[in-house]
């Protein structure tokens, strides 16, 4: 016969064990600076306290409902794996040379955010993909990064995510001497209240479609030198500038609602000397004069190319934005 | 919000850079503009910073200096004056008029100091001083190499601000902050 005292102690132990398994009570996994050189799964609460590299040949799998918090480490301090100040952000980052699967669900999203009590953009660096294919970011929330997702000569599907309060939501470019070409389909994402939205850099060919890109301080979409993208069926509204161009030639921009952007709906930066075609979009009005007032091109600065906005739609594009 | 803007520009610029390591991140470079604390240099610095940012996507950090930079430029860009430039040269090198002096200064500093004297703004400064001479944006040659189209953008501000425009700008800064005054000025000129 066990005593009442022992029975109560056992009962308390069982209750504690059960509670620890609940999400709110699970112990946080602390990940220090280092290399994940074999397949790894993250779930529950994860605190990243330094640069983490997913090595070539290894896969990092992040389960639905996981919250990954990044500590704001000392700038280029001992927790930084790379101290090359020209090419690396000062705070903690993830470098994916292997693969990353972060697939949440609509009801159970994965969150990447700052561990600070008063978080701010740039508390952590980015998830950098370097020469890797078959990566997935789906139903994730990215907050307070410098640039949340960086595609460098990699293939990543970016689907159904939310990007909020970052310096820039995402950017892509090809690297010299890396055989993989960048492909980053960006579909059904909410990109809002960041400094900038989506940057499409040189040589990339990314469909950017059915996204809600709004209220970003400087731009919604930035198409730059050599970048190629099909930008279709997006709502690009109320950003500082809607779509900006720098030295780009080959992008497709049609079937979007591009309206109510603060400064310009279309803005060519210095160096965009070639013409661009942006037919078949809705510009928030059918008044041609008002449409042109929201365009920075050759009409304002002789050194810039001309934007062709003819055949504009006379009503918003139905079916644009997140379906 | 301001922090987001700074971060985004550094991110966007970094995409122009070439990487050599196997693990790539992206950190761009920020352009530093040194200005002294006079109302004139403050408002001109904000005009330059706003315009460069708007037209190139590059973040510009204004470095306030309590001292005049003399004939040097301790950061990427500075504001200087032809007479100051002349003071660093031999007396034999002085020309007969402002334009000739500007040409002499421009040639001397690019050959001897790696400094590029760009197109003069159009006004004479330091404002309200007797020895005022052409005010000129000055850039380090290495900075111009690092930031494509920078010289073209700055040169678009050439001859844009004459003495009376500067006077008006200075009056406006007495009741408003230099950044807002600069932005309004550029909007009025249809430049942003």
From TrEMBL, chain A:
Residues 1-26 form the signal peptide. It comes from the Bacteria. It comes from Candidatus Electrothrix aarhusensis. This is Copper-binding protein (NosD). InterPro entries: NosD_dom, Pectin_lyas_fold, Pectin_lyase_fold/virulence. Residues 127-280 form the Periplasmic copper-binding protein NosD beta helix domain. The lineage of its organism: Bacteria, Pseudomonadati, Thermodesulfobacteriota, Desulfobulbia, Desulfobulbales. Keywords: Signal. Gene3D superfamilies: Single-stranded right-handed beta-helix, Pectin lyase-like.
UniProtKB/TrEMBL annotation, chain B:
Keywords: Signal. The keyword Signal applies. One of its GO terms (molecular function) is transmembrane transporter activity. Residues 114-187 form the ABC-type glycine betaine transport system substrate-binding domain. It comes from the Bacteria. Residues 1-25 form the signal peptide. One of its GO terms (cellular component) is ATP-binding cassette (ABC) transporter complex. InterPro entries: ABC_Gly_betaine_transp_sub-bd (IPR007210). The keyword Signal applies. This is Substrate binding domain of ABC-type glycine betaine transport system. It comes from Candidatus Electrothrix aarhusensis.
